[in-house]
Amino acid sequence: MAKKNIIHKIVKKCLAVLLMLALAGAVLFAFFQDKINRWEYPIQYAEYVTYYADKYDIDPLMLYAFIRTESNFDPMADSDAGARGLMQITEVTFDWIKSKIAPTEDLTFEDLYDPETNIRFGSYFVSYCLLRYQDDLATAAAAYHSGWGTVDDLLAQTQYSADGKTLDHYPYPQMRLYVKKITSSYQRYQEIYTAS
After folding, report:
1. Average pLDDT in the 108-123 region?
2. 67 and 119 together in one domain
3. Strand (E) or helix (H) holding 55
4. Which residues contact 89 (CB under 8 A, 6 or more apart)?
5. Angle 4-7-11 (CA atoms, 0-180°, nearest 5)?
6. How many domains does the chain have?
7. Dihedral of CA 119/126/180/65: which sign?
8. pLDDT value at position 36?
9. Where is the Transglycosylase SLT domain (predicted)?
10. In 3D, which of 66, 75, 73 has the Cα closest to residue 178?
11. N or C of the chain: less Cβ packing under 10 Å?
12. pLDDT category of residue 33 using cuts at 50, 70 and 90
């Protein structure tokens, strides 16, 4: 009988220790999971992102999704298409945005390597795309990536847009992948930073 009680006490203590270890493991996992998530989906250049997101009435987390997708926060990024900086703006797009928000400023395409200038121009462009496509992020992202002309042509075709205002399907693999990256990245930013 005494032997049974000793075994019972040992089993109870082992279960208690295992429960404590499992609880500690869960807490550590949650802590490190949050760190990993924030490392994968960082917030950088917060001063500029917050300011221009507010100025152009955009969720800052959406801008982070664009920056992460476009350059992974590398201000010196260049693309094969000649786009520059954090938000990967081409020279043609730079000239158009400059004519809208900075016509008298002495800015050149080279200035897109400056994080503030790039975020300022990119934020305006994102806001313009959102306004043009009724705040539909996927359609706005397609336009940011492929241009309004391409998106407007697709909107006129019923196999790509049921309502003529937003895209339901993306015929080009690069466009489809880009839209998926933006929308899923934005969703992850919301999950990570609004749940905190």
Report:
1. 98
2. yes
3. helix 46-55
4. 83, 97, 112, 118, 121, 122, 125
5. 135
6. 2
7. positive
8. 86
9. 48-160
10. 66
11. N
12. confident
Q: Residue 87: what residue type?
A: M
Tell me, yes or no, whether 5 and 98 share the same domain. Answer: no
Q: What is the CATH number of the domain that holds 186?
A: 1.10.530.10
Cα angle, residue 32 at apex, residues 29 and 36 outer, rounded to 5°: 130
Residues 36 and 50 in one domain: no
pLDDT tens digits, one per residue of 71-105: 999 999 999 999 999 999 999 999 999 999 999 99
Catalytic residues: 70
Helix, strand, coil percent values for the chain (each to nearest 5): 70, 0, 30
Two tokens at 94?
A: 């730079």
Cβ 143 vs Cβ 129: under 8 Å: yes
Find how far residue 78's CA is from the centre of its chain: 19
Q: List the structure tokens of 171.
A: 């015929």
Structure confidence at residue 16 (pLDDT):
58
Specify whether the CB–CB gap between 112 and 89 falls below 8 A: yes
- 8 A C-beta contact, residue 50 and residue 60: yes
- 182 vs 20, residue with greater confidence: 182
Tens of pLDDT, residues 60-72: 999 999 999 999 9
